[in-house]
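Human: Can I borrow your eye for a moment on a structure tokenisation matter? Separate attempts, laid side by side, tell us more than any discussion would. Could you pick a protein and write out its sequence and tokenised fold? No explanation is needed for now; the record alone will do.

Assistant:
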Amino acid sequence: MLQTQEVGMPEVVRSIYDAALDAKRWPDFLARFATAFSSESAVIFGQDFSDRSVDIGAHPASFAARHGVGEDAMYAFAQHYCRCNVWTENEQLHQHGQVVNAAWLYPERQLPRTEWYADWLRPQGLFHSFAAVVEKRAQRSFNVTAMRSKRRGPYTADEETRLYALMPHLQTAFALHRRLHRADALAHASLAVLERLPMGVVLLDATGAVLHANARAHRLAQSSRLLFLGPHDTLRAASADHELWLQRAIRQAVTTQAGTPLHCGSARRLHGLEGSSLHVLVTPLPAWSSPFGAQALGAVFVSNPEAALRSQGDALRHFYRMTPAEARLADALLNGLSLQEHAQRQGISIHTARAQYKSAAAKAGVSRQADFVRTILTGPVMLNWPMLGRTDLDPA
């Protein structure tokens, strides 16, 4: 098999990886690809053999791109002519990692009598085609296809060999494109969610360094002067006592998901000399939480205990089937109150409060209070929270 550089295509290979890193460059790759294979047109699209439909790029994750084929022609292809495409009639001829040539996909002498040729290929001056089946999963494939006019002749065995030489590069680029898209989409979605939450949130990596802090965390830290998001991605507390507790709690949280030792998280009320206060919960995160490429192993939730969060009683009852009393207790814990403080405010005994907590925690699937608060803070109730203004949560 010929190596890619031996057929003068290093620029094509470079353009493949440029496109994998920047999806806007797929058409640039196709232009070089078409030139390298003496073709007027080249396209990337998804083929679903179950219903003969195609994906021509209607969403950000799509690999679809085109060169030398007009937008109207691609639209017509997706709407109708994909089902007339005689080159995709036999799914068994399209296998993962294979190069397929139209010359043996369908008899060339019969092609002019087909609707596919008469109404789609001929208006564009196209006749011959070959393609790299870069991916094939179940009945869906992703292909890089070149097309050219009849006068240029069918694609040769030498050109098939050259396309095979590109195959591993295309497969790597497609996988990289998909992985980067997912990471990017997850990052943007996670950022949006963090900005919606009604408290400050600081995400921590395996070393305890700050991966990301939402805007509310910055405002609470700045206005209270009890916490500082400092240089070198650090989160610090103002007083020595608070700093000792905070750094110990951070170490315990991030090492729990790293494997040792097991710790459910810590919570503390921080008080300043000028009367300011913050409620701080430091907790491990689920091991799957990787919103920014690097894995977030811990989180710090920060709220102003003087500005109560809006009640989420309805959401708590809906998502966790809590009773009204259990939902009130959960609201209190989310606002940094202890069971004793909640019992006093509600005029109930501590035994009743503990019984309510035990029932509510069981419905949330946890037992420890730190786990209970963390589960609520990272669960669907918080994602359902309406956007709140500064006066709702931030210290005066």
